[in-house]
Design goal:
The complex is a heterotrimer of chains A (354), B (290) and C (288).
Chain A (H helix, E strand, L loop, with lengths): L24 H16 L2 H4 L2 H26 L8 H16 L4 H23 L4 H21 L10 E2 L7 H25 L1 H11 L1 H6 L4 H27 L1 E2 L1 H4 L2 H14 L6 H15 L5 H18 L3 H10 L11 H16 L2
Chain B lengths: L2 H29 L6 H19 L3 H22 L9 H23 L14 E4 L2 E4 H23 L1 H11 L1 H6 L4 H26 L7 H15 L4 H17 L11 H15 L12
Antiparallel strand pairs in B: 1-2
Helix pairs in contact in B: 1-5, 1-8, 1-9, 1-10, 2-3, 2-4, 2-8, 2-9, 3-8, 5-6, 5-8, 5-10, 6-8, 9-10, 9-11
Chain C lengths: L25 E10 L2 E11 L4 E5 L6 H9 L6 E6 L2 E2 L5 H7 L1 E3 L12 H11 L6 H14 L15 H14 L4 E5 L7 H16 L3 E5 L3 H7 L2 E6 L2 E6 L1 H5 L2 H8 L1 H12 L6 H6 L5
Parallel strand pairs in C: 3-8, 3-9, 6-7, 7-8
Antiparallel strand pairs in C: 1-2, 1-4, 4-5, 9-10
Helix pairs in contact in C: 3-4, 3-5, 4-5, 6-7, 9-10
The chains are: A mainly alpha (354), B mainly alpha (290), C alpha/beta (288).
Chain lengths: 354, 290, 288
Amino acid sequence: MATGTKTQTSPTTQAPPPKPKEGRGWLWSLLLGLLILGLVATVPFVGNAADLHNWTLIIMFAVLAQSWNFIGGFAGYSAFGNVVFFGIGAYTTGLILLANLPFWLGLIAGALVAGLFALLLGLPVLRLRGHYFAIATLGIAEAMREFVTVRDVGGGGGGLISLPLPSLDSYVLFFYAFLGLSLLCLLITVFLTRSRFGYALVAIRESEQAAEALGIPTYWHKVGVFVLSAVPAALAGGLYAYWATGFDPDTVFNVGISVEMVLLTFLGGAGTILGPLIGAIVFEYTSFQFQASGFTLHNTLLGLSIVIVTIFLPQGILRLIQEFARQPAPGERRANPFVEGVRRVRRFIAANGV
Amino acid sequence: MSFGQVLVNWLLLGSLYGAVALGFSLVWGIMNIVNLAYGALIIVGAYTAFWLYTDLHIDPYLGIPLTMAVLFIIGWIIQYVVINRVIRAPMLVTFLLTFGLDLLIIDLVQQFFTSDLRSINTAYAGNGIDIGSTHIPLPSLIAAAIAILLTAALNFFLTRTRIGNAILATGMDRDAARLMGISIRHTYALTFAIGAALAGAAGALLSQLYPFDPSEGGTFTLRAFVIVVLGGLGTPWGVIAGGLVFGLAETVFPLIPGVGPGYDDAIAFAVLVLVLIFRPNGLLGKPFYS
Amino acid sequence: MSDALSQPMASDAGQGGDDQGSMPLLQLESIIKRFGGLAAVDNLSFSLHKGEILGVIGPNGAGKSTMVDLVGGATTPTSGTIFYQGHNITRLSPHQRTHLGIARTFQIAQPFKGLDVRENVMVGALFGQQRLSRAQALRAADEVLERVNLAHKATFKGDQLTIADRKRLEIARALATEPQLLLLDEVMAGLTPVEVAQAVELIRQLNKMGVTVLVIEHIVSAIASVSNRVLVLHHGRKIAEDEPAQVLSDPRVIEAYLGERYARHRTQQSASGLPIAKDDQQLSGGES
């Protein structure tokens, strides 16, 4: 039998391979995240009531984006209906409060109900391929909104809930509660980047077939991360319910919020540790600055941002910064961001356009 | 409610739904774009018909071609300026993008027309044909007839005209079509514009049958999606079939004691999930252009 | 689910089938896979013994990749049964089969682009047969990378690799799951002759370590030089199964690859005593 030529190592003599160092990127991201949250924590001291109000909402959206990042960024499954968990959290907490039971019980109940719902919903829906999954989750949010309206859950007519005012001075407490929730999400995200579960999610995102072939039970991981993404959203919903002392289905089951979660995550950088947080801060802060005509302009801004981000910035701010900050290879000039930007847009259109 | 009445309701509703989903199915089948702004286009159609009626006093049925023309132009512009740039991007991108467009369009409509509930009530709207105890409302009947007409027209256009054939060819194999000299950019723009025009027609029809406001958009998109999934992407008639099946669900379900009306989205969602799980190729089993 | 399957055997399982146990490692019985009206795999039966290297060849569309999908679990047969170590695995999902010891590569390499090479392989180690900690998995990954000669590119991102490297990464990832049976789906496509030789050598080494290998290939000479047996598929059917030299001079096989006319032409040539043309030797295994 022919033995073939003797195996040689790669003919080009390369420098001895750099010892692969454990990436410390996650640590820097974590520290930066703590720094950002720490800075935001000073708002009650340096800002006025309006600032407190705005930043409470900004952090709330950060939590929503961070939770969406688990399933959308890490696992790559774009759920378009995650607002349903927010709403479930809000209504569960609201109903518990109306029954004169303690607030913390409402929060926990909301999280449990949402998690259970995610499990039951995820089982059939996660068997669907990508875009069917997206539409199905979109449908569930709409369906839930309708259901709650028709059944008048909450009793205020059309599903409206009015809650007793929380005690004075608690707006600050609410703010810190949201902030704490965001911190929790940050820690979970960091954990994901280092854990088995997280690696499985990334594998599923990059190539579900290969992931399955390597021994990952992809279905259960998907269901698991779906449930994981539901819990912080539900907690945020519960907090919102009491903070706002009243809400209706159109507010807490608003599909626009669902899509906003997606946008914020992509704007900052899907699948990264800080992306959702940064995306939320950038967008929501800008939106508040534009708050001239109130809520209606928000939607236009959202729509426009979506269009801009999907065409020009699909990889997100963070990755964009990373690319420009990276040391250029020897011989490569540092690119002028503007020129490079235009070049990219052209390339994107050339690649994806007709 | 008599059986005859239920039957009539079903047929009328189903045909109407066919019209609703027609444009959506065309764009999806040919361009593989799930246009989440479709509901918004329907709403624009409804408001256009409304405006033509209240400000220019044009009878809504006569206003349909005008509405379609307006939506045709809007669709062409959207396609050329925005959608064409992301045709080959992953589906999530087009999802997000069209949803963004949806938000934009609905917001603009809201600025112009406010969120008040609108409807068109012509003088003859209350008329109908009575067969025994079954009442067939005239607007619904005409709407269903127009829906069938549009479907037949689209089918004829696609299969019997050169341009229509070009569109079909592009849908089947874009690169082969390009090699045969078909301009893909124009074909896609035309397809999307026709889809928008059909959305406009649906909106015009709906404006006379139900009160509407800008927030209804999302519901229509969802329903269009479900109807297309039900009927498959093969032919325009498949859409009517899908519409009929969906209409059946919506007609029958509220009759179940204790359920009542108002669960449209929930029904749509449930039907969708069931079909996708058990018959992923749609009820008619036609393969998707995926 | 999985038996307590141990490390790959030490080097006594050399080339050639291990006939100690009569039970084959893998057995396909009357496997049919239909897509619509077309039978991609048509009544296929064969078995594979522990320690063997089985080559599978056949013209395009013969059903080779479908067969890998069937054995790996990416698709289920329309009818027929698949046995692995005596167990019926026909209904098991791919990840369950991986835990039993079956690993596969993909014809079109699918590296995890967001991760670097080392992490790519680590995923295989983390989720393969044993439950390893992150540190253990990293070490296992490093070992595997050494074996496939990719260690020097450990920090490269998945999308910075050449084709040959991607194929090696595919193999490395599959190896990290510590398989007993390795299915290689056209790993040599697109490689230069030097790279092909390296791949062949790698397969030999893996086999020496006790891994049973099923190699699907287009490059007939390469597969002939390394396989114990060769299976030939055509239109989803098995048309030959024998030692390489026998298979490659089988007129049915030649006919399948090159068409009826050529086969007739060749038999005429050999009948008339003329020397067989040089390029025909390639087909016969290139034995010099």
